[in-house]
Amino acid sequence: MIRFVLLRLLHVVPILVAISIVAFFIIQLPPGDFLSTHVAALEGRGESLDPAYIQALRERYGLGDPFWIQYWKWITNILLHGDFGQSFEFRRPVAGLIGERLPLTLTLGIATLVFTWAVALPAGIYSARKQHSWIDYAISGIGFVALAVPAFLTALVLAYLGFEFFGQSVGGLFSPEYANAPWSLGKLADLLQHLWIPVVVLGLAGTAGIIRITRANLLDELHKPYVVTARAKGLPEGRLTRKYPVRIALNPFISTAGWHLPSLFDGEIIVAQVLALGTIGPLLLQALKSQDMYLAGGIILIVAVLTVVGTLLSDILLAVADPRVRFGKA
Amino acid sequence: MATVERASQRTLIWRRFRKHRLAMVGLWLLGLMYAAAALAGFLAPFGKDSHSSDHAYQPPQIPSFSFEHGFYVHPTAGRTDPETLEQVFTEDTSRVVELGFFVKGDPYTLLGFIPGDVHLFGPEDPGERFYLLGADRTGADLLSKIFFGSQISLSIGLVGVGMSLVLGLLLGGVSGYFGGWVDLVIQRVIEFIMSIPTLPLWLGLAAAIPPQWGPLQTYFIITVILSLLGWTSLARVIRGRFLQVRGEDHVLAAQLDGVPKSRIIFRHMLPSFASHVIATVSLSVPTMILAETSLSFLGLGLRAPAISWGVLLQDAQSVRTVVTAPWLMMPAVAVVLAVVAFNFVGDGLRDSADPYGKRSS
Questions:
Q1: Is the pLDDT of residue A329 over 50?
Q2: Do A26 and B198 touch (CB under 8 A)?
Q3: How far apart are CA A26 and CA A18, in angstroms?
Q4: Same domain flag for A322 and A214
Q5: Is the ipTM here above 0.90?
Q6: Helix H segments across A49-149?
Q7: Do B298 and A270 touch (CB under 8 A)?
């Protein structure tokens, strides 16, 4: 087991390095160098920056140096000093900007995962046990639509329903009176009241996908001889399903948890934009549009690293649950 | 001598596919949608750039019928309510706009070379306006825009999949056929790409498109970006199939007979799993359509004056719009229909791809 974890950890290192290079490559893509664009824009408005400040920024990021040297400065600053650079638009350190929004993003992600599992597992099992019943057809039908409807559309429709029937303030994760208040029980309750819309929207497609996988897996298992044997020996149906086939059908849950993380972040960007959530997604979008490239690069890096770590965790979890994975046989 | 009936693999697959009712529905739907995209100029009541600033956010009009006028609607005039600042439309019931089939209207060119100015349905007098599905911010007919948008939205998925198919076949094939360290490297690259959230990366790439580029160039770059998004899963499927087929007897026999490598690949290996590849491809088209819609919706994909469903949906970005002008969501209905149809067809293909296998439930 320890060997497996160590091996996987070794595996992650080159991926992390590659991610940081890709992230930096992307922030370098737009033509021109953003500092000069920024300075030009400020001067166009009649403002002026201290030349020493500009010079200091140039030095710090090594603008004008070749790609690899710039990359080296960027990544060593992050690793050694936790310094992600300066956001040009907000005139604040990138690390602080990301730090403010990261907790909400993580809360949203974890809540969505929990929702996905809590809905998909029972629905998938029920659907397989009662194959060809109308509930099975209903679940499959809803799943088909859930996979086809773009996330922003669900977000708009649900927000509309929440506004019309529950009188909720539209958009944001907090009511206006709590938006800038310090954390309290009231604020937590308020958050929970608002969280369900983005959670349902984000979880819908993933839930539909997992229901399909669970149903198919369980259907394969339910006709195997060991199930027939157990039934012949008089095991009650509920216990029979729970004890053996469900455990096997559970594997994809654990192993796909990691694969779902990237799509969670993908969805979050769109949904958060529509619902005006204070998460990382809209910040990234804004940074990309205004070419605030250190902010964008920092966010891409953080999100990618989080995903890789999440995948690693789910791999380890799978190895704990399934010895075949541990010994490299599955 | 008894004659033996023989059916080719293609016939077997087709027979099986036809039994898949949902897949057939999907196929018909797709056929209709692509036909509509090709005939957009004729089907749309108005031309691409036709709009009227008096009719911004005009709600949908439902035609009435009388023996005197045939199908007709009453002309409307929009004004801003001074108190609520909302657009209010009043019907002028004293006048009618007569509607007819095969009427003359804005000129268009079908498929890029057939000029015409006859529209399937529209106002008899080309100067009048009529909005079956309502109007957008500029007062353009949403129905016409949806027809024109289908040209880009439905083709971008196919072109993108075509590109990622080339990439996937090449890299997946090399990986599966040669194995060894080549396989190892390609597999690691695929794992890497699959393990990072794609949207931030593609957003970053899309943000790097210079804004002064024309619609055609942007369209091309967006397809390339989309195909970069799609090739990994295809490459995996193709590699898996290659590995499976490589060990089979007929391939070994061909190798022993000294058949050149390229002929083994294209004559003996590819045909045996082509149907699976086609099924996978048809299942990844909807992903691309959704990706284009999302990119354009976020304002990082195609931009007006290009018309795609995603670009049209940019107007419906906030809940306020949905409350005041719900018809702006209509392009999303088109997106959902196309995606569901592709999914049905893909599922049907996947189930019937192996005509000798047992039918999965």
A1: no
A2: no
A3: 12
A4: yes
A5: no
A6: 51-61, 67-81, 94-129, 134-148
A7: yes
